[in-house]
Automatic annotation (TrEMBL):
InterPro entries: CbiX-like, Sirohydro_Cobaltochel/CbiX. Gene3D superfamilies: 3.40.50.1400. This is Cobalamin biosynthesis protein CbiX. Keywords: Lyase, Metal-binding. It comes from the Bacteria. One of its GO terms (molecular function) is lyase activity.
Length: 126
């Protein structure tokens, strides 16, 4: 039996809806790559769905393993305090789920390299 997997791209959220556009593009790209059975967005505040809502929905759809990817540049207070508490609550609600937490996307060497390459490219355009 195949374990159904999901990815949740977790962002801070903002009052301006266009703020989520890069995360939506990342979600759509992951979906086109079939990186998981389900790929969803979730937000800490200001936007929907919240992380608890997204995790509950994925559990309802029969997803058994979920990788939460923080779309943050680094491990700040939200990732050190708020996110672990939200995940603990979700694990208590859905003990059957295997919820995994990735490091902040901005800490990945490939992302750091991409940011540096972008800055270098912009500097050469002057």
């Amino acid at each position: 039996m195949t374990v159904r997997s999901g990815i949740v791209l977790f962002g801070h959220g903002a009052r301006a809806p266009e703020w989520a556009a890069p995360m939506e593009r990342a979600r759509d790209r992951l979906r086109s790559q079939a990186a998981a059975d389900e790929v969803e967005l979730a937000f800490l505040e200001f936007m929907a769905p919240t992380l608890p809502e997204a995790l509950d929905e994925l559990a309802q759809r029969g997803i058994a393993r979920i990788e939460v990817i923080p779309m943050f540049l680094a491990q700040g207070g939200h990732l050190k305090r708020d996110l672990p508490a939200l995940l603990d609550e979700a694990r208590a609600r859905h003990p059957q789920l295997d919820i995994r937490l990735a490091p902040a996307v901005g800490e990945a060497e490939s992302v750091i390299a991409a940011m540096a390459d972008y800055a270098a490219e912009r500097a050469r355009m002057r």
